[in-house]
Amino acid sequence: MHKSTSGSLGPSGLDLTQAFFKPISGAASPSSTKRHTKISVIGAGNVGMAIAQTILTQDLADELVLVDAKPEKLRGEMLDLQHAAAFLPRTKIIADVDYAVTHGSDLCIVTAGARQILGESRLNLLHRNVALFRNVIPPLAKYSPDTILLIVSNPVDILTYVAWKLSGFPSSRVVGSGTNLDSSRFRFLIADHLDVNAQDVQAYIVGEHGDSSVALWSSISVGGVPVLSFLDKQEIAYEKETLESIHKVVIDSAYEVISLKGYTSWAIGYSVAALAWSILRDQRKIHPVSVLAKGFYGVDGGDVFLSLPAQLGRGGVLGVTNVHLTDEETQRLRDSANTILEQQSQLGL
């Protein structure tokens, strides 16, 4: 439908590629070992476009595909990005309403989702998003059977489970953005409290991407120094209420941004681009993302996706980090899993 063009000018489509360049005798053909990276972003809303824009600036893809149900907005977003070509790494940008355009994608990022109507219950919204996913996930799996699905749509944990069921993919190739952004907010708040760089703070939020998330206070470190054990050894008193208040700010952060500007976009854009980088560049970095959690940390009530510190690479989810949890943190994580399972049970999948 809509795509970028190259090598032609004018209404007749005159091909200037051969005329513009004089070939060099004996020039080597393109290397067959160079990997062509293709990323498809499903949903051209505020979140989808923030992700697309961040991916472009980070030179992560050779080809970027946008898919949305609104053709006019889709074409406008595509053109807007193409017009910035002189300021960006070379990337072929394609946009279409037809999922066939996603063929051969290395990574499919799903941001499409219904918005909550005033007075609508969360369960009804969930049912509408499940119905939407029935039209989104199967064609992605059909056209890119070897792709990795990265789910961003909310409620992300349940919809990652739905995507896993609908795709038929192994769980290692279906991952949700989960609490990766929550953990970034957590690190920022701790760094701000201690007046250090957030990159020097190691801290995770796990469990549900929502109100039942769990802050792993026992594993927080700054510059390699475990914070709570350091305070204990130095006999420095701290109040649990202070820690809980920081966690509450993390939970409320998205609500605050939405109330101020109407939606969240930039932070989730950077968060998802970081996940895409870790996966496609085989970085094997640890990210708190939504994975199939059954069998980890005593979560055994059923198939449930929730965020755990996981190693990401070219194969998707490579493993789950064996982080030490206190008994209280373990119980809270199980409670979070049960919260998600209770909602899933009402879907009839």
From TrEMBL:
User: What does the entry list as the binding residues for NAD(+)?
Assistant: 43-48, 68, 129, 152-154
An annotated GO cellular component of this protein is: cytoplasm
Q: Which reaction does it catalyse?
A: (S)-lactate + NAD(+) = pyruvate + NADH + H(+)
EC number(s)? 1.1.1.27
Q: Which residues form the Lactate/malate dehydrogenase N-terminal domain?
A: 37-176
Pfam families from the UniProt entry:
Ldh_1_C, Ldh_1_N
Any one Gene Ontology biological process term? Answer: lactate metabolic process
Q: Lactate/malate dehydrogenase C-terminal domain location, by residue?
A: 179-343
> MF terms per GO, please?
L-lactate dehydrogenase (NAD+) activity
Give the pathway.
Answer: Fermentation; pyruvate fermentation to lactate; (S)-lactate from pyruvate: step 1/1
Catalytic residues as annotated in Swiss-Prot or TrEMBL: 209 (proton acceptor)
Going by the UniProt record, its keywords in alphabetical order are: NAD, Oxidoreductase
Annotated InterPro entries = L-lactate/malate_DH, L-lactate_DH, L-lactate_DH_AS, Lactate/malate_DH_C, Lactate/malate_DH_N, Lactate_DH/Glyco_Ohase_4_C, NAD(P)-bd_dom_sf
Keyword check for Oxidoreductase, yes or no: yes
PROSITE patterns per the UniProt record, alphabetical: L_LDH
Q: Which family does it belong to?
A: Belongs to the LDH/MDH superfamily. LDH family.
Please give the HAMAP family that the UniProt record associates with this protein: Lactate_dehydrog
What is this protein identified as? Answer: L-lactate dehydrogenase
